[in-house]
């Protein structure tokens, strides 16, 4: 407990830790439930029904209110709004700030697990488009981990900078410019994490842009060798590796998306 108090509570990292724990645990539980529902539906679709057997009511299933299916992102958005309002209004100290952070992380996981529904305004949970939700979850988890490990959202504080406010301002501007450059190069996740971890922003900014990014379309048009290198780096093998990660985290996509 002394270690936890010294290195987590006293450094202000406790809310970030609880938010990350709530985020990860909630995502694992929700994905396990939705994958179980999906497996049960696929089994029912391929099996021959027995008219003499009384169907059992499943313990886990979709939630409906008034005949309308309520996606779990609704509960997540409500939870994020509620915990945010309570935090802004009351700013509770230890341990209630950790409780609110835990609930906030849980709500964020519920909402981001259906991020693709926000983006496409359609129930694409198990489709190829639905894999965007896994991207959002991975980015959210990476940001949570980076905020937990870093003392400042922009990597440094004014006390860290040598030479006063001028050096501090220049450092922050360069840092944010590198993060924005990552976004222009099509590396949204790298840019977001790079806001918290400066070295990530630097590495993402100096490496090749994705071929479909605004940076590549504008800067690589007259440099075909750069475009060819980018297409090779982010080609079929890169996509296959990333797809394996998505499948491992969230399950495989198919062409028949059931309601999740």
What does this structure look like?
This protein is mainly alpha-helical and 260 residues long. Among the domains are: 1-42; 64-148, no CATH class. Helices cover 65% and strands 2% of the residues. It contains 12 helices and 2 strands. The protein has helices at residues 2-9, 14-46, 72-90, 96-112, 115-120, 132-149, 165-184, 188-196, 198-206, 214-219, 224-233, 236-250, and strands spanning 64-65, 68-69. Strands 1-2 form a two-stranded antiparallel sheet. Helix 6 runs parallel beside helix 8 (188-196). It is flat and about 75 Å long.
Q: Which descriptors apply to this entry?
A:
260 residues; mainly alpha; two-stranded antiparallel sheet; 65% helix; membrane; transmembrane; transmembrane helix
Q: Ranges with pLDDT <50 over ≥5 residues?
A: 256-260
- Total helix count? 12
N-to-C CA distance:
40 Å
Mean of the pLDDT scores?
84
| Main sheet: strands, sense, barrel | 2 strands, antiparallel
The gist of it:
This protein is mostly helical and 260 residues long. The protein has helices at 2-9, 14-46, 72-90, 96-112, 115-120, 132-149, 165-184, 188-196, 198-206, 214-219, 224-233, 236-250, and strands spanning 64-65, 68-69.
